[in-house]
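Throughout this chapter, every protein is written as a compact record of paired, labelled lines. An example of such a record is reproduced below:
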Amino acid sequence: MNGEPDIAVPARALGDPARGRMVTALLGGRAIPAGDLARAASVSASTASEHLRVLLAAGIVVVDQRGRNRLFRLANSDVSIAIEALQAIAPRTEVRSLRQHHVSEELRSARTCYDHLAGDLGLRIADLLLASGVVTELRIGEPSSPPEPFPDGPIAAAFRIQPQQGRRPWARGCLDWTGRRAHTAGQVGAQILGALESQGWVTRRADSRAIRLTDLGAARLLELESLVTNLSQ
């Protein structure tokens, strides 16, 4: 019989600035080689290997072997939700350059959080889902089931939302450090990110987890927000 969770284990694993920078880099949902994580953490390759061993042992990250390459990624969506929540209570680092300022503003505007959207864009979409009844509630860390009947209105159609498949929660609130409230995780969050990318509404930055809203996406999102506002009046 197991007792209560021992939060000291992940806390110790994350309790180093370099390891913190590594897991933050992995929040974008990509699998990243150790060399790139070393650069993100500003440490040597040998030091990065030691840090990655700690994160692996704690179950924070897992490694994929692809030929001769070893790529690291966050273990699961629960880890990403926990890290995003820690960012909401963590002190802000000092911005020391114009580039850091631009990166910070881009991440605040829109970013990936594992396989879903976060930042101001993620919060705008969460508001649309709630206002239109596509999602009935978004509680931090708690799963939400699809409403009955299943939503088939313009918001669900625009974001190509599908019924629940498998055991993963259909929707779940993930604490956003930007707005300190919930954006949409779970299957719905992943479906929306995929739909926006496939329709050309957003593009990813190659060098960070920032997301850029395209002109098409900005126009379509304003249309949907106007539609929901008119329907609620």
Q: What stands out?
A: The CA atoms of residues 66 and 80 lie 23 Å apart. Residues 8-75 form a domain with the Arc Repressor Mutant, subunit A fold (CATH 1.10.10.10). The chain has a mean pLDDT of 90.
